Structures are given as structure tokens and as C-alpha cells.
Amino acid sequence: MIPVDFDYYKPESIEEAARLHEQLDRQKMLPLYYSGGTEIITLLRLDLIQTKAVIDIKAIHECREHILGEDYLVLGSSLTLTQIEERNAFPLLTSVSKEIADHTARNKITLGGNICGEIFYREAVLPLLLTDSLFVIGGPQGVKILPAHEAFQQTMQLGRGEFLIQTLTRKDFLGMPYMSVKIRQQWETGYPLVTIAALKAKGEIRAAFSGLCSFPFRSKRMEDELNRKDGTLDVRMDRALRHIPAPVLNDIEGSAEYRLFVLKNTLTDILTVWEVEQNA
Ligand SMILES: Cc1cc2nc3c(=O)[nH]c(=O)nc-3n(C[C@H](O)[C@H](O)[C@H](O)COP(=O)(O)OP(=O)(O)OC[C@H]3O[C@@H](n4cnc5c(N)ncnc54)[C@H](O)[C@@H]3O)c2cc1C
């Protein structure tokens, strides 16, 4: 049971959603955009968020689009993770997404909800950061398009009343070699101890991480160290790990020391496979 009442709105356009948000905000209704609802309902049940109105964005056409166009793959923010996996236009995203929660939950969880949610793992953002994707954002000032690394810095950088409409990924990234590995403390579903998503773009390695720090990230400095031509893999790895951008999590899921151990071994395995392939 949800212990509070709230109003439910289902606008059919970006403008209507933004207008509603402004109006409800003025009325102190603490409006929230609502996509899959899994997190909102859970947090309302636990009395961890307050809202008197939710704005369901699933009836907005652009939020449901899934188009493989001439230059870009367009993914609407209200697509569920299973819809994205079934179409499999973006294999790295499929690979990361398939490891989030279980199939039943992924039938509800949406791309936008995962990226914009409070639960800090936000693993679906990793492939989008690695592929220099663009984020289409709507709000009271209209629609804007930002590079993923600007729109997402530790969390989604959304202004008041703004919401994620779509992501755009250049098609040439979709076929590049990739690997993703999620290591959990135990069980087959659950939050990551460490998730690594890696892409090989024009011979250079790109890597992004979730579960390591209290936010998902891609670090150019780490990538630069990994791509250096001097030093053994072990040395390059040690140099790269010096650039982890924040303290490594040290919690019930695993100590910082253990996370680093797992990170180093897993990343070494990925890079070894790629280096062996390259030298074959
Ligand atoms: C059983 C279970 C296991 C999980 N395991 C993992 C895991 O291993 N890794 C992981 O990364 N996550 C995991 N999660 C977290 C889960 O991915 C997020 O809670 C979920 O993705 C939220 O998606 P949703 O579509 O239901 O969002 P909602 O509940 O609709 O929204 C969540 C938040 O995002 C905001 N929001 C939603 N869509 C938009 C948008 N388009 N623009 C702006 N704001 C928006 C809402 O206002 C709200 O604040 C798990 C969740 C469950 C239930």
C-alpha cells in the first residue's frame, strides 16, 4: 500500500508535460516525472520521497520512439529495458541492461528512470557515456540537446521542470567491439560490486564504471593511462587506478580494497583479451 494520495497526470506532448510541471510546482505539489514508476512507488511506500502529483511521460510519443535512422539510434526515455534488449540495436546497452534487476522488473524499469533515478548505480548510462551519445532534454524553456558527458555528471544535470526525452547514439558506435562485466557480491541479480563497460573505438580503449564510487563515471584520465604505449599492462593499470575520481565505496556490499581488487582483475582480463586479439 502507498501511504499517501497523489494526483496522476498523463500528458501527450513535451510542452504539456513541461507546462504541467511548472503549474504543479507553483501549487507546491512537488511534482515528479513518472516513467516506469518502480523507484517512485518503492520510495513512496518507504516514505522516502514526498510528492502530491506525478506526471507520467509514457504517452509522449517522443519518449517511446525507437528509431534506427540514417545517422543515429534514437531511444525514447520511456522505453523499458526489456524493449531495448529485444530490439538489440545497441548491443553494449543490451549487455549492460540485461544485468540490471530481473526480467520482470526490467519490463517496467525504463531507460530514463534508470539514468535519472535516485538509486545511484544508474548502469544504463555507461554505454551512453562511452559512445559520446547525445541527450535530448525537454522543459519549460523548450527542447535542448547536450552531450551525455555534459548532461550527466555523476547525476543527471536537469534544471527545474526538465526531463530526459531521448538519447541519440551515432550508428558507427553500435558495431564497435565491446565488453561488459558485472560482478556482484552474491546472487545472480542485485546491485553491482563493480560493473565495467568497455568499448574499443578506433583502436583506443574506453571504459566506464558503476558500483566503484557513489556515482557511475567514465574517466578520460584513466583511459589515457590504459591507452599509453609504454609500460606493461600491470603498470598501465596501476597508473589508471590512481585517477579514480572519488573514494571507492566501502560498504556492506564490499570493502574498498576488495572492489579495487575485483576492478583490477576484471579490467585486466578485458584488456588482455583485446591485446591478444590485436597481436594475433
Ligand atoms: C529489483 C530491482 C533491482 C535493481 N537493480 C539495479 C541494478 O542492479 N543496477 C541499477 O543500475 N539499477 C537497479 N535498480 C534501480 C532501478 O534501475 C531504478 O530504480 C529504476 O531504473 C527506475 O526506473 P523507472 O523507470 O521505474 O523510474 P521511475 O520510478 O519512474 O523514476 C525514478 C526517478 O527518475 C525520475 N525520472 C524518471 N524518468 C525520467 C525522465 N525521463 N526524465 C527525468 N526524470 C525522470 C523520476 O522523477 C524519479 O525521480 C533496481 C531496481 C529494482 C526494482
Describe the protein.
The chain has 280 residues and is an alpha+beta fold. It has three domains: 7-56, Uridine Diphospho-n-acetylenolpyruvylglucosamine Reductase, domain 2, CATH 3.30.43; 61-173, Uridine Diphospho-n-acetylenolpyruvylglucosamine Reductase, domain 3; 176-279, CO dehydrogenase flavoprotein, C-terminal domain (Enolase-like, domain 1, 2-Layer Sandwich), CATH 3.30.390. 37% of the residues lie in helices and 23% in strands. The chain has helices spanning 14-26, 38-45, 61-64, 81-87, 91-97, 103-106, 111-116, 125-130, 148-151, 171-174, 220-226, 233-241, 256-279, and strands at residues 7-9, 32-34, 53-56, 66-68, 72-76, 134-139, 142-147, 152-153, 155-156, 163-170, 178-183, 194-201, 204-210, 217-218. α4 (81-87) packs across α5, α11 (220-226) packs antiparallel against α12 (233-241) and α12 (233-241) packs across α13. The radius of gyration is 19 Å and the shape is globular. 37% of the residues are buried. The mean pLDDT is 95. Bound molecules: flavin-adenine dinucleotide (FAD). Flavin-adenine dinucleotide binds at residues 32-40, 57, 77, 100-101, 105, 108-110, 112-114, 116-119, 121-123, 158, 163-164, 191-192.
